[in-house]
Design the sequence.
């Protein structure tokens, strides 16, 4: 199972999180399968207060880190990709940011200046742009993991192959999105609310798992 967000604006799931400083370092990751529709639009995977996250660029196909827009490789349709991004805070307004496709570094900038607000919400499958939610994923997403630390590449890869988060230090949120769209399984007790028409669907699974019971091939 996976969360499906269509191409219509207004669909998402979202949770409030404990207020985090705008200078918090993070690693975020998820599996994504883009449908062939909605090309030519931003498509959000994970988004924090419209500060930053993982998405496609405005063409709807180019892997991107929202808030920084360092364009990466083209993502094909109807293919499962493991996507990840790290944000290392140098100061309250300067960051190192890197993006990974299937644990391979794809994009990155060092010492990039940005000004963010404190983090209070996480939106999956869209972005809360002043309540507009106008960048729907138009595809499937599952296994969202958010950590309040920067992971080395080897650990990102280990998480890609694991059905559960590896080394849970700093684990803020874990939404498998395999059986429900409500519960965070990190142990931090976050609860998702939804807007529009997000649904759980059966579909092609990412290549490292044998079944929708989350038994992974190692």
Sequence:
């Amino acid at each position: 199972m996976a969360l499906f967000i269509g191409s219509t604006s207004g669909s998402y799931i979202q949770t409030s999180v404990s207020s985090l400083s705008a200078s918090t370092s993070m690693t975020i990751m998820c599996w994504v399968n883009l449908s062939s529709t909605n090309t030519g639009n931003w498509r959000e995977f994970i988004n924090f207060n419209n500060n930053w996250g993982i998405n496609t660029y405005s063409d709807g196909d180019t892997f991107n880190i929202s808030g920084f827009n360092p364009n990466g490789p083209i993502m094909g349709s109807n293919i499962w990709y493991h996507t990840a991004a790290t944000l290392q805070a140098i100061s309250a307004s300067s960051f190192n940011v890197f993006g990974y496709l299937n644990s391979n570094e794809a994009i990155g900038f060092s010492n990039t200046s940005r000004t963010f607000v404190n983090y209070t919400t996480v939106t999956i499958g869209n972005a809360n742009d002043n309540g507009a939610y106008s960048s729907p994923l138009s595809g499937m997403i599952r296994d969202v993991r958010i950590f309040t630390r920067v992971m080395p590449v080897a650990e990102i890869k280990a998480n890609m192959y694991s059905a559960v988060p590896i080394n849970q230090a700093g684990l803020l949120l874990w939404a498998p999105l395999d059986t429900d769209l409500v519960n965070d399984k990190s142990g931090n007790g976050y609860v998702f609310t939804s807007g529009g028409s997000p649904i759980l669907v059966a579909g092609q699974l990412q290549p490292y798992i044998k079944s929708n019971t989350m038994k992974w091939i190692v």
About this structure: Residues 2-201 form a domain with the Jelly Rolls fold (CATH 2.60.120.200). DSSP finds one helix and 14 strands in the chain. The helical segments are 153-161.
